[in-house]
Structure formats: structure tokens, C-alpha cells
Amino acid sequence: MRARYVFPPGFLWGTATAAHQMEGGNTNNTWHAWEQAGRVLEGHTAGRACDWWSGRWREDFDRAAEAGQNAHRLSVEWSRIQPAPDRWDEDALEHYRQMVRGLRERGMTPFVTLHHFTDPLWLAEMGGWENPETPQHFARFVGRVVDALKAYVADWCTINEPNVYTALGYVEGVFPPGKQDVRAALQVAEHLALGHAAAYEVIHRLQPEARVGLVLYYRPMTPARPWFPPDVAVARAQHRWFNHYFAWAAGLGRRLLPVGSRRDRRLGPSLDFFGLNYYTSDRLAFAPHRPGYARRVFPPEAPLSEHGDIAHAPQGMFQGIRWAQRFGVPVIVTENGVEDGEDTLCPRYLAEHIHQMWRALNLYGTVKGYFHWTLVDNFEWDRGWTRRFGLWALERETQRRTPRPSADLYAAICRANALDTDTVARYAPQTLLALLPGSHGVS
Ligand code: IFM
To answer: What does the pLDDT profile of the chain (443 residues) look like in tens digits?
Structure first.
């Protein structure tokens, strides 16, 4: 039996990257300071990263284009473009102009993310996103970038994973500024939502035809013991705050309250597309002494990634798209991938997640693109260089890139604009059964 899952013409296939993880030499932002303070696993620093700022983006864009990708999602680094509150660096803007033009020259559609986890040091000194003026600072920065790049870019992601930024920086304290302060987290969340809405407005004022989205990290959360009311309650509460908060703000113009929600016209609706990042799913068990009163466990049957960070739960991709399409705008899978230096799980992960995306597209018809995280191994934030998500492996000292088998699998999918069982049989034979019609991906 054979099957071929075909995507609509013009479907976007790409990879996603972020400035601080790729460029190297970003020394004027909060993450650099965090790294210097020894807060990253094994004392790692981003250092030269993948050397994009010296020009290696060219060879990586060549690689992506040759591998059949027709889009790329990258981010711009605020601290380079605005190194001080009253200083703008035109050379940095020109550098990004060359990059996005470089994508167009290679037949790839650029998606530009305007905020991806890093903040300029001057902004942090002013209180970062706790400061109610930060949304306006962000909107000013966004205006400069849009003016500079709009000849080549029409697709903008305002803020990457504001839910992760808030949770890891202000509740768990493992991202800068390292706080564990729920009040500060609520303030930051509100200001990020306002920053997104302000950016949405500025972009449309400068470029009426632009498409603007927010990128959310969606994580399905189900009760570990569905018959145990405390597990049900914590799973609901965490789903509400982690998944719903920003989606309701940008998608519905509603602010969540401890009970119910309130319409807030400053927030939106402010979405032209929904950027969905999906990696894994959680089960939550009530744990009175843990932050958020919950202990997270992975579905017991799910295979785990190299370091156990990600459980292979491809049905969550389907659920995520079903959830996101309720906000009434096209969905773009702006990230999906797995840390897997040996490339043992990744081929199967890729095939099964793309299959689930196809199922959701077939049912709801709203998915417009898929960006795999990521093109080349890069600096993975608090885990440093220990986690390898790249389709291409990176040897840091020599900057040599080597394709993993998953790079060939993904290229076959991108080139065909389809996932077929012959390709799966070649690269991920163990998952063939899960991909046959009628299986719904249950392997
Ligand atoms: O590397 C990160 C990225 O910056 C944001 N989303 C998740 C990725 C993998 O952890």
C-alpha cells in the first residue's frame, strides 16, 4: 500500500532561525550578559555562533534553497539596530537588507521576526518589559525595521513565544532576567501583548499590504490522571495561562482575568496569521509544592529526544492547528523540530508531524506553511551548544556544516510539495504504518 499526502500549490516550506542563535558577536543584549554571568549550561556562550554576521548566511541560504525550501524565517537583533536609545545603526539595517534580498534572490520568501528572546542592554536597564513604556520603544524600533526592509519583506512575526519569554524569564528564572515573581510576570505579559498590538499597527501603517502574526509556543496539557479533579484543575489553569493568554489578546482582543476575560481594545484583534510553534505535549499532575502547583510528565508511551527534552507526540500538531484555527486567520507552523544530534528520532518526527499537519490542513484548510527548527545546529539558549536541532550538523571550530539524513528527507518533501510513503520508507521505515491512510498517525 502506498500513500501520497499532497500540499496545496504555493505552500511555504522553510526553516526557522533567530539572530542571537546564528549571527555571532552579539554583545549588547541581555543574553550576552547572561552568558557572561555563567548562567548557561556548561558555561557555554553564543560566541561566533554560526558566523552569519561575517557572511556565512549566504552559504546557508544556498543550502536551504538547493534543498527545495521556498521560505525562511529569521529574526533581527534589536540591540544591533538600536545600540542606544537615541542611536540607530544604518550599517546593521543594511546588513539585514542584504540578507532578506539574498533570500528573494534565491526564490525564498522572508519571514522576519522582530523580537526573539533578546533585549538591548539599555532596555533592560530601564526595566525591560516590566516598564509600561517598553511597548512604545518596541513600536519605534519596529517602524525603523519595516521602513528599511519593506521592499523585500511582507510577512512579519512580531514577538517570538512571549509565553516562553515570560514563563522562563519571570516564573522559572532560567532565562534573563532570572526572576521568580508572578506579579512581574503578569506585568511583562500585558506589556508584551501591548507591544505586539502596537507593532501590528505600525507595520500596517507603513505597509498596508503586510501580513503580521504573533508566534506562540503551543503545548497541549492534559491531566495525568483524568479521573483526579486536582490534575484536571492544574492542567486547565496552565493551558489557560500558557496557551490562551497571548492568543486571546492578539486573536480576540481580550485580556484573561483570574476568572473570565475582559475586552481590551488596545490589544486587537491584531493578527493576520497565527504563528504556531509545536514541539511536544505534556501531562500535568497536581503537585502542591511546585511552581504552578503542577508536575509535568510526558505521555508514557512517547519516545524521547536525545536529552529527554521533547517527547515524540505528533498528534499534538493536529490538536495545535485545530486550536489555532479557531482564531479565524491562516495558521503557519513557524517552528517544529527535535534535538537529535544522532538523527535517530528526527526523520520519524519530521514525517509524522508533517503528516499530522496535512491531516489538519485537509480538515480545516487553513495551514499555509511549515518552518522546521532549524537549518544548522545553533546556540540553544540556557542549554548552550548541548542541544542539536539542525538539519545540518555544525562543527563549531571549523564552521563546517554536514547534512544529516533528515536534511535529505526534508528536501524530498519540500521539492515534491508532498509527503509520500516511498520517501518515508527510505528515511524513516519504522513509521511507515503510522502514515498509511486510516491510521491517524497511531504507531
Ligand atoms: O531554539 C528555540 C527557539 O529559539 C524558540 N523555540 C524553541 C526552539 C527550540 O528549543
So the answer is: 789 999 999 999 999 999 999 999 999 999 999 999 999 999 999 999 999 999 999 999 999 999 999 999 999 999 999 999 999 999 999 999 999 999 999 999 999 999 999 999 999 999 999 999 999 999 999 999 999 999 999 999 999 999 999 999 999 999 999 999 999 999 999 999 999 999 999 999 999 999 999 999 999 999 999 999 999 999 999 999 999 999 999 999 999 988 899 999 999 899 999 999 999 999 999 999 887 789 999 999 999 999 999 999 999 999 999 999 999 999 999 999 999 999 999 999 999 999 999 999 999 989 999 999 999 999 999 999 999 999 999 999 999 999 999 999 999 999 999 999 999 999 999 999 889 877 665 44
* In the chain, where the domains are located: 11-410
Using DSSP's 3-state secondary structure scheme, residue 379 falls into: coil
For residue 380, the CA-to-ligand 1 centroid distance in Å is 7
Cα–Cα distance between 69 and 63 in angstroms, integer? 9
State which ligand 1 atom lies nearest to the alpha carbon of 309.
10
Pocket test for ligand 1, best of 373, 374, 383, 389 (most atoms within 8 A of CB): 373
Q: For CA atoms 111, 117, 121, 126, give the dihedral sign.
A: positive
The identity of residue 171, as a single letter, is: V
Atom of ligand 1 nearest to the CA of 18: 4
Query: What is the residue with the minimal CA distance to atom 4 of ligand 1?
Result: 18
Confidence (pTM): 0.97
Ligand 1 pocket mutation pick from 113, 161, 163 by most atoms within 8 angstroms of CB: 161
Q: How many residues does the chain have?
A: 443
Q: Which helix (H) or strand (E) holds 74?
A: strand 71-75
Residue of minimum CA distance from atom 10 in ligand 1: 380
Cα 25 to chain centroid distance, Å, stands at 22
Report the relative pairing of strands 4-6 and 418-420 from DSSP bridges: antiparallel
Task: Please tell me the distance between residue 409's alpha carbon and the centre of ligand 1 in angstroms.
Answer: 21
Question: CB under 6 Å to ligand 1: residues?
Answer: 18, 21, 161, 277, 335, 373, 380, 389
Residue with cell 541581555: 30
- The residue whose CA is least distant from atom 1 of ligand 1 is 380
Look up the CATH number of domain 11-410.
Answer: 3.20.20.80
